[in-house]
Specification:
Chain lengths: 915, 367
């Protein structure tokens, strides 16, 4: 391509041996702080001139000019006066803008006289390669600030790193100088701020999947520099497992796992749908109770202890179709970050982990779309500019075709069942000006299913967020975020008109927060902020349906609460070897009226029979408070360039807990706010880690942790959780502890890449109430439902070439604990079972192998649509892994059964396209 | 393209260590009739023998004033209290086993069951029969009920036997007794309970008791069901509900976690020793209905235990040599003229209806 262009260019040189005089057409206009790109677009519209320039050379150029009735030459002379930019115009009205040296639009005068032109043409050729960002470094001097503006020895440069092609921010790109070594990474919006010694510096910008850029910068004082990076035309060559290879070793953060969408797409999946949560489950320290459960357990924490953020809004039920799919459309996801330890102070509200999911920004330059078809689902996404280079949108949807999946399950229970779901996403970004950006995101997911006949379940998540990002100056960046999260479910039973009912439940959550980043110096980055969350729960409402129904309406009182927080944290690089992070978050929770509260006789177990009074709280009146500091500390010491040791401690507080009597997140699970009887969960975790990078992009790491959880909710045997007006009588306060070691060997790039991890972990609970009813297993520690001591994960990818690749995924874990029957007896002519102490036995060990083969379409850059095929086999060995083991009394005879969700190998074909 | 096979396989857990067997107390003091309390021991789940009865215990029924009535052991593990007038409001049960361990229930109120309003049945979409019970008791705001039922149905064997082979004379005689038409009974095994706390009045509308598939042998001729209704306390309801949850509702995707369910007995001698059973006292009410095949739309084929029955032929010439565990059924008509050329015969299981568990005696209540 490039050669052809060059020849054409040469041809134009020849046909314009004599440069024609410029036309005298005049133009007028007024431009203020416009990017060069916008300015050029405007000129191209007003004239028949076409501009050619290297965006990498002009991205820091802003134009402020006002002119009337000027020729293009006059305008350009004015624009480029006193700058290093040069321009030239050829006979076709092509304007070439270059740095320092103008393009020759004519051949040298001695071209035909046998003079030595190799020198001059060779030189020109170099300058002519301006149409695309150079694959190699661009040597260019950018002058930032004004000479002698102040007496300081350092100055700060800040700006955004964006993709040339789509205008999307490049996240996690390193911006650094080597001597002395100072480096920062771009944040989730592509923003960076780096403080450097004044003078000439070579700034290196690196991001995998992007062409590397080196910039020569002459730094006089603080200034702004946006950088545009071009996508590596052959991005498939490198398989991105982490955005930055050395981050695990050199970064301060520990216990952070990042997965980008490219990695997720390689992991073989059941039913052909790229699944964020299934990808998260392949990481060390993350477990689930079994297949078809979306809730996940991080380092021995319960499923409700994970803060799942989708564009900053909390998601309560991240699953579709009782857990077969996660509720996020992978086509729209930019990246996923899971914090397992060392959680920064800006996060709070759940004690185990933070799963931060963000969607991509739409393409700001051109329209494009993508989609896919698998046996179960179809999805489609469309994106494009609203205002070119200023704002964009991204919209996507996903749905199942039909209920036929359930019909295929050879169980009569499923034959009469139906299930459907959909989810919709919208993301809008708008650049108000260079200092202000606006992000709007909306999300809705809905599920409906009917199992075993007459009861229909439906649930829905809604989330919306509005984020305004403002750059005060190069050192201070602020973000104002408001979000709404909603979750509700309905259980409807309409078959028998006499007791037809609807049972519904809802949570509404409103958040507002302000976060600031202050880049004090190259050694201190300070984050601080404040936030408030308003919860409103409608914890259950039973309503009769139809005139015949004699069901009595039963509505539990609404609960409302306010959770406020304030935090500050400092990332301090003491020496290049030693970095520390210290953060403090203070959260304050207030449960408020209106509500009637039962008062129980003190000293006796809480029971309906021990209620001695009912106190009414009016609207807005405080019912109970809870508050406390949450300390977050971490430190990294680099033993050598390739080796580091990290340690962290964090405390988190959680004021809303899920009540579930089942092992996984079920659609009828309810969430309960802390109140005078339900104390907030408090989690403390200390962890240490060792990280070492080896040759050939191998790295090894070991992380160990110890965790204590206070006020864990547990249930009395056979507790009634639904429509319970006095839930405090059925729950117990447990103490939990968890500990473990995670070993990881990872190869992040190359033809073969992937990881192997082994985790040893335990998760134990202790419930020692005052009476025997409130005590489980005599008050001794017992394994939690998701205590799986040994877990091995292997993910291997092999690339045959740029079009064909395969992946193999192997998972082993100890079976989860269960309560087994230890004896049988006969009561009223029917066999019954006597169960053991809670969780004293285990289901059989879990083992699964998955395989996938991916075929990319051809790699022509310009074609109508890019397509790819993915063939995968889930559970290749067809092992019938137990989901649960249970015993039932059937016509008086006790029978034991093992329930497996996937009882055989499941092959799937998925077709994906992108245009 | 996709073969989704979620599946359920039989599962035998690794043998759990034998615990000391637990005392199981089963029974109900019925004010209307003679009552039996049965004591037995729990077994290892793989035991195939019948539950071991617990003989030699001393059981007494005690009212709040301390007055005791003793039960008498009529056979091993069965302790009987003849019907008697009980005037106190609350009673408890005291048990001392032969190894001198003492057990005691809590005081339980005497619960009188309201009458059963009706037993109804309807045809479902699949032409099966759904039997429902209706009751109410408006004097009490909240009602908790438990039901048990006994089914009886008429059925026939595969082949009717008109002849009998006389091994003494080596000849065929006419059969005079009925071994073709039988009656069989079965008791409910599932826990059937309902509460009216979610309803505006203490009335149970159409509580489903049992479902009989369209092709069930039970519906072939005449079917009868006798339902016994118990009024129970809220605590007893929650005991039965937990027992039901832990043994009948498990294993679904959203099934609850099982837990130890024991009841309202306590060991006095060793408070940590589990003991199983729920003591209740009161009166019951009953109701019986009949359903006949003429009220139903029968299936093309009934599901009977006789699917692989076959009849063989015994020709007249071979009659003296006939032997083996077979029963004659009917004669083989002579295709050429009057008379028979021999007899059909089959196995007793296909001919004698008593072989599948029934009795030829017509129950007293049968119309």
């Amino acid at each position: 391509m490039r050669t052809v262009k060059f020849i054409l260019l040469l041809f134009s040189f020849i046909t314009s041996l004599t440069s024609l005089a410029q036309e005298d057409k005049t133009i007028s206009g007024e431009y203020s702080n416009q990017s060069f790109n916008n300015f050029v677009v405007a000129l191209e519209q007003k004239t028949d001139y076409k501009f050619f320039f290297n965006p990498a050379q002009t991205d820091s150029l802003t134009i402020t000019i006002s002119f009337s009735s000027k020729t293009i030459v006059e305008v350009l002379d004015e624009v480029f006066r006193n700058s290093d930019y040069r321009y030239s115009i050829d006979a076709n009205h092509y304007v070439y803008v270059t740095l320092r040296e103008p393009i020759l639009t004519e051949l040298p005068s001695n071209f035909f006289s046998g003079g030595d032109l190799s020198d001059s043409l060779g030189q020109r050729k170099e300058n002519a390669r301006f149409e695309e960002a150079e694959k190699v470094k661009v040597e260019k001097l950018t002058i930032i600030g004004t000479r002698g503006a102040n007496d300081k020895s350092t100055a700060t440069i800040a700006g955004y790193v964006r993709s040339v092609k789509t205008g999307e921010p490049v996240i996690g790109a390193s911006v650094l100088i080597e001597k002395p070594l100072i480096g920062v990474a771009t944040d989730g919006n592509g923003f960076y701020s780096i403080t450097l010694p004044k003078g000439t510096q070579q700034l290196r910008i690196r991001s995998i999947g992007m062409k590397s850029i080196d910039r020569n910068v002459l730094l006089h004082s603080d200034g702004k520099m946006n950088i545009e990076m071009d996508e590596d035309v052959l991005p498939l060559k490198e398989v991105v497992v982490e955005s930055e290879k050395d981050e695990r070793v050199m970064g301060l953060q520990m216990g952070l796992e990042k997965i980008d969408i490219k990695t997720m797409k390689q992991i073989p999946v059941a039913l052909g749908e790229v699944d964020i949560l299934k990808a998260v489950l392949t990481l060390p320290g993350v477990q689930s109770v079994g297949e078809a459960t979306v809730g996940f357990n991080v380092r021995g924490g319960a499923t409700d202890q994970n803060l799942i953020l989708f564009n900053d809004a909390t998601i309560y039920n991240p699953s579709h179709l009782f857990g077969f799919f996660s509720a996020f459309n992978a086509d729209l996801i930019k990246n996923v970050e899971l914090y397992k330890s060392g959680i920064p102070a800006e996060y709070g509200g759940r004690i185990s982990s933070v799963l931060d999911i963000s969607t991509r920004e739409g393409n700001k330059r051109k329209w494009s779309g993508s989609g896919g078809i698998s046996p179960i689902t179809g999805r489609f996404a469309l994106e494009g500019p609203i205002l070119k280079d200023k704002s964009s949108f991204l919209i996507g949807g996903r749905s199942t075709y039909s209920d036929w999946l359930l019909k295929k399950i050879p169980s009569s229970n499923f034959q009469n069942s139906q299930a459907s779901f959909y989810d919709l996403n919208l993301a809008i970004t708008h650049e108000i000006n260079s200092k202000n950006n606006l992000y709007i995101s909306g999300y809705i997911s809905k599920d409906r299913f009917k199992l075993q006949g007459d009861t229909a379940y439906s649930y829905s998540n809604q989330a919306a967020s509005l984020k305004w990002r403002h750059i005060f100056n190069n050192k201070l960046l602020g973000t104002l975020t408001t979000t709404y999260s909603g979750y509700d479910y309905t259980v409807a039973s309409h078959e028998n008109p006499i007791n037809a009912f609807d049972l519904s439940y809802a949570i509404d959550q409103l958040n507002a927060k302000a976060d600031f980043n202050y880049f004090l110096s190259s050694r201190h980055t300070i984050g601080f902020g404040t936030g408030v969350v308003h919860y409103k729960l409608a914890p259950g409402s039973l309503q009769p349906v139809g005139n015949e129904s004699i069901v009595v309406p039963d509505v539990l009182q609404n609960e409302q609460a306010l959770e406020s927080s304030i935090y500050v944290g400092d990332n301090f690089e003491i020496t290049p070897q030693l970095s520390v992070y210290g953060g403090l978050r203070y959260s304050f929770f207030q449960n408020r009226g209106p509500r009637d509260l039962f008062i129980y006789q003190s000293g006796s177990p809480k029971d309906v029979s021990t209620i001695i009074d009912t106190v009414s709280f009016p609207s807005g009146k405080k019912i109970s408070n809870s508050s406390g500091p949450e300390v977050r500390l971490s430190a990294r010491y680099s033993v050598s360039r390739n080796t580091s040791v990290k340690v962290s401690y964090n405390r988190l507080r959680q004021y809303i807990q899920m009540l579930s009597n089942t092992t996984a997140i079920a659609p009828t699970d309810i969430w309960k706010l802390s109140d005078p009887y339900i104390k907030p969960l408090i989690g403390d975790q200390i962890s240490v880690g060792y990280y070492h990078s080896l040759k050939k992009s191998f790295e090894v790491s070991v992380e160990a942790y110890y965790k204590i959880m206070h006020n864990f909710l547990d249930y009395k045997g056979g507790a009634e959780l639904i429509l319970n007006h006095h839930i405090e009588t059925d729950v117990l306060n447990a103490e939990g502890k968890a500990y473990g070691v995670e070993f990881l060997l990872k190869k992040s790039s190359g033809k073969i890449n992937g990881w192997l991890s082994y985790t040893y972990s335990r998760s134990l609970l202790k419930t020692a109430g005052e009476t025997t009813i409130e005590t489980i297993n005599r008050g001794e520690y017992y394994p939690s439902n998701y205590d799986k001591p040994h877990a091995v994960n292997f993910i291997g990818n092999y690339k045959f070439n740029r079009r064909f690749s395969m992946s193999l995924n192997m998972v082993y874990s100890t079976g989860r604990p269960i309560t087994l029957p230890i004896a049988k007896y006969n009561l009223s002519g029917s066999g019954r079972l006597l169960y053991s102490d809670r969780n004293q036995y285990r289901i059989p060990d879990y083992f699964r192998t998955d395989f996938s083969f991916n075929v990319e379409g051809n790699h022509k850059i310009k074609k109508l649509a890019h397509s790819s095929w993915s063939f995968s086999v889930y559970n290749l060995t067809g092992r019938r892994n137990a989901y649960s083991v249970y015993f039932t009394s059937e016509e008086g005879v006790i029978k034991g059964y093992k329930l497996s969700i996937f009882g055989s190998a499941i092959p799937t074909i998925t077709y994906n396209f992108k245009f | 393209m996709i073969f989704l096979t979620g599946c359920i396989d039989p599962y035998l857990p690794p043998v759990t260590e034998q615990q000391a067997s637990v005392l199981v107390i089963d029974g109900f003091i019925n004010l209307n009739e003679e009552s039996t309390i049965r004591l037995s021991r729990s077994q290892n789940i793989y035991d195939t023998i019948a539950p071991l009865a617990e003989p030699g215990a001393i059981i007494s029924l005690e009212d709040e004033a301390g007055t005791k009535v003793f039960l008498t052991e009529t056979k091993a593990g069965s302790y009987v209290l003849p019907q008697q007038v009980l005037s106190a409001n609350k009673y408890r049960l005291n048990i001392q086993t032969k190894n001198l361990q003492q057990y005691q229930s809590g005081f339980e109120p005497v619960k009188v069951s309201p009458p059963i309003d009706s037993l109804t049945w309807n045809l479902t979409e699949n032409l099966g029969v759904q039997v429902n019970v209706n009751t109410h008791e408006f004097e009490n705001p909240k009602g908790f009920y438990r039901w048990t039922f006994d089914e009886t149905w008429q059925y026939t064997s595969k082949y009717q036997s008109f002849f009998i082979y006389n091994y003494d004379t080596r000849r065929v005689d006419l059969r005079s007794d009925n071994i073709f038409e039988c009656y069989r009974s079965a008791s409910s095994t599932d826990i059937l309970i309902e509460s009216t706390i979610r309803l505006s009045k203490n009335a149970v509308p159409n509580f489903p008791l049992t479902y009989i598939p369209n092709d069930s042998e039970r519906l072939r001729y005449t079917y009868s069901i006798l339902v016994t209704q118990y009024a129970i306390t809220e605590d007893a309801f929650s005991y039965w509900q937990q027992l039901k949850k832990t043994t009948e509702d498990l294993g679904t995707l959203f099934g609850p976690l099982p837990s130890q369910v024991t009841g309202n007995f306590q060991s006095i001698s060793n408070p940590n020793e589990p003991v199983i059973g729920y003591f209740a006292i009161g009166s019951t009410t009953t109701n019986r209905i009949f359903i006949t095949a003429s009220q139903l739309q029968g299936p093309p084929v009934y599901d009977t235990p006789y699917d692989n029955c076959e009849a063989s032929q015994l020709l007249n010439a071979n009659i003296p040599n006939f032997g083996g565990p077979f029963l004659l059924t009917s004669g083989i008509p002579n295709p050429a003229g009057p008379g028979i050329i021999g007899y059909y015969y089959s196995t007793p299981r296909c001919v004698d209806c008593r072989e599948t568990g029934g009795t030829t005696t017509k129950p007293a209540f049968w119309p």
